[in-house]
Design goal:
about 50% helix; disordered C terminus; TIM Barrel; 12 helices; 2 domains; single chain; globular
Length: about 300
């Protein structure tokens, strides 16, 4: 029997595909609560948020929201926007890297399209001393995403990172295959609605696999970004790193803008590197719905704002 949390998560992700819900949220969502998680609809707004977080001691990353472009022209526009983002961050000397979805780079048009666009951006980012991370998308895009990541590394793009999701049954094997590359990896639980054939349906198993991925990555030779708001997972990671004498410069904690800011500050005060992930753009709806699905209790936050209006 699925847990209530699992059922709620599925319902929220299903609602994300509903055209009526989408139209309503696109019109009112930022006022009702999406602005809690989205740093703004413009780059200027996002930069202001990043500057404030840097002043508090946080690292940041920035993501231009959007995915699944359907034409080469749209992919070219996304490349141009990311070049502008990278240049702006460097010009203002902000402690911030960038994250990007390969479907925004034209993955659905072909792997070569996305790969060449990524090479263009990675070479530009390297000139600015900046790292880019390829965000992981739904399971149908995982094989191509990891294949492109490997080819980018083979082409000498060392300023690129990737993401693994513990909800997917394949992720432990994927990590084992990537470890010889000493990869820069962000580990997440996963925020997409997947079938039980490819993903673990229950939270307990997703959590167990998440801890397994963390331990495997920390004992490897790369850099590990532990991206979770789950305090139990964070404390387990800290205790494991201390027990295995893993230096703090080998890993960091990553959390989303607007979620558990007090915990973010506490970790920072304890001397850990904390990155706050920010995003901006007008295509914020899918991102926002996945944040609600990750923690269905966030729906109550949205409902309270709706009632107040």
């Amino acid at each position: 029997m699925p847990s209530l949390n699992t059922l709620a998560r599925g319902a929220i992700l299903a609602a994300a595909q509903n055209r009526t819900t989408k139209a309503f949220m696109n019109r009112y969502g930022m006022r009702l609560g999406a602005s809690r998680f989205v740093a703004g609809e413009t780059l200027d707004q996002c930069v202001a948020v990043i500057r404030g977080l840097n002043q508090q001691g946080f690292k940041c990353n920035a993501t231009l929201l959007g995915e699944a472009v359907t034409s080469a022209a749209d992919a070219d526009r996304a490349v141009a926007e990311y070049r502008g983002l990278i240049q702006r961050l460097q010009a203002e000397a902000l402690n911030c890297n960038v994250a990007i979805k390969l479907t925004l780079m034209g993955l659905d048009l072909g792997e070569q399209v996305a790969e060449e666009n990524m090479v263009t951006l990675l070479q530009f980012a390297a000139q600015m001393g900046m790292t880019m991370r390829i965000d992981m998308e739904d399971s149908s895009h995982v094989p191509a995403t990891l294949a492109i990541y490997r080819r980018l590394r083979e082409r000498g793009c060392d300023n690129v990172g990737a993401v693994l999701q513990s909800c997917l049954r394949r992720s432990v094997a994927d990590l084992e295959a990537l470890l010889p590359l000493a990869p820069n990896l962000r580990l997440v639980k996963g925020a997409y609605l997947e079938s039980r054939e490819v993903a673990f349906p229950e939270k307990a198993e997703v959590d167990r696999k998440y801890l397994q991925l963390i331990e495997m990555a920390l004992e490897g030779a790369g850099y590990t970004a532990i991206a979770t708001h789950d305090q139990r997972m964070i404390r387990h990671s800290i205790e494991f790193a201390e027990r295995k004498h893993i230096d703090r410069d080998r890993f960091e904690f990553q959390m989303l803008y607007g979620i558990r800011p007090q915990l973010q500050r506490e970790l920072l005060q304890e001397g850990y590197t904390v990155l706050v992930a920010t995003c901006y753009g007008t295509h914020w709806y899918p991102f926002f719905m996945r944040r609600l699905a990750e923690r269905p209790a966030n729906v109550l936050f949205l409902a309270r704002n709706l009632v107040r209006r």
